[in-house]
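During the no-cost extension, the postdoctoral fellow (Dr. R.K.) reprocessed legacy sequence entries with the updated structure-token encoder. One reprocessed record is reproduced below for audit purposes.
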Amino acid sequence: MPTTPGPGPEKAAALTPERLRADVERVLGEPAGAIADDEDLLDRGMDSIRLMSLVETWRGSGVRTDFITLAEEPNLAAWRRLLLPD
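Re-encoded structure tokens follow.
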């Protein structure tokens, strides 16, 4: 019996500055607005597992990035410059 393909996987919501911040705060267990834009995320507990989780989440939204690129300058301001269009 032929099968009918189901609906395809839905693309995750687009990455916005607000979502970028919310995703970082979520993985670090921080309340909204607790992290300064230029704060070193390694000092807040960002580790390789959390960073890879973010990379995979954002790739699901169509963002092209990788662990090394984000690890080089681990702060929200740098990541906005790298990941979000002008």
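The domain at 17-83 is CATH 1.10.1200.10 (Non-ribosomal Peptide Synthetase Peptidyl Carrier Protein; Chain A). The chain has four helices and no strands. The remaining legacy entries will be reprocessed before the final report is submitted.
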